[in-house]
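Sorry, explain these tokens?

***
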Amino acid sequence: MLDDDRVSLPEMDGGELSDAYAWATTRPRVITLGEDARPLWRIVRRYARILGETLPEAQSVFIERTAEQTLRVAACLAASESSEVITDEMLSAAFALVRRSVQDAVRITKGADAPKAQRQSLSLADKVRARIEMHGGRATSSQVLPYVGASASEVKALPGIVVAVDRSGRTGRPATVFTLRSDSSQHEESAPAKRTVMESNRAEVVRMDAFRPAPTQAPEVRPMEQPTPPATAENPFRSLL
């Protein structure tokens, strides 16, 4: 029945199964193969032998007793019908069940003896970049160092890693922050330094006017029209707070 998906299992009569169990346990019984089942039994044994000889050892160890298991299942089927003789039909049904279990075992253990693929370990630079990208492009030393197995000095020496000090905290030590250097920042560092860093409230503030290119010719402004510089010109970020 396992070979035919169109067939559904019949309803089981529990009373008959109880009677069969009582018959099998009232006294010792010997269950033997019927004459009509012996040709199929030879096929089952040949099937098990061929499998054991062709499959790798990592798979054959799971199915080396295929023939014996088929005979046990067939004996249970015979006992369920209160019979001491295993018929060809019983042995065929048992063989269908065991053959399915063999197929599942081979499928599960497939590739068990294959050599494991060598995973290429990531470099320290790749690990650091992955940690920084995981935290949105900006990660502190506590978010990087314990996970890459390196010291702060080793990470600082990596190319493409920018190290900054965050003093925004009111208490405790300043935090070391790692970011990834972009192409534009590399080009900017190759030119003369153009930014002015001033410290206000223990935080690094970058003046935005330091990044603006100087005009080639300043427009002429009349004395009466000269604008009054805002009070926050010294710190352009204060107006955003």
Notes: The mean pLDDT is 76. The longest helix spans residues 88-108.
